[in-house]
Design goal:
Number of strands: 11
Structural class: mainly beta
Strand content: over 45%
Largest sheet: 7 strands, mixed
Shape: globular
Distance between the termini: 37 Å
Amino acid sequence: VQLQASGGGLVQAGGSLRLSCAASGDIFVINVMGWYRQDAQKLRELVAVISSDGSANYADSVKGRFTISRDNAKNTVTLQMNSLKPEDTAVYLCNYRKGGAWQYDVWGQGTLVTVSS
């Protein structure tokens, strides 16, 4: 499985950005895709993930501001980020987790999101 992420950039506080990630290769029908972020201290945290059945989970810090969605036919996941705050500044990493037996993670390249105050 390979992941190709796009989006990110520089935005002022209160603005919006959209991140997209496309998975290709041997995609298992049961999987979870989503986004994590890593700050300057290299701490990685879950931002939002969504399973192939449409169930989504969000970090408390982004609930009500970020929305994750996916297109199973295209194997893509999108993160719409609204009301961005300076503390959202981080490298955002796309993740694919194979479901079922023999679970494993695949990480995409990071995309930088910078929110200026």
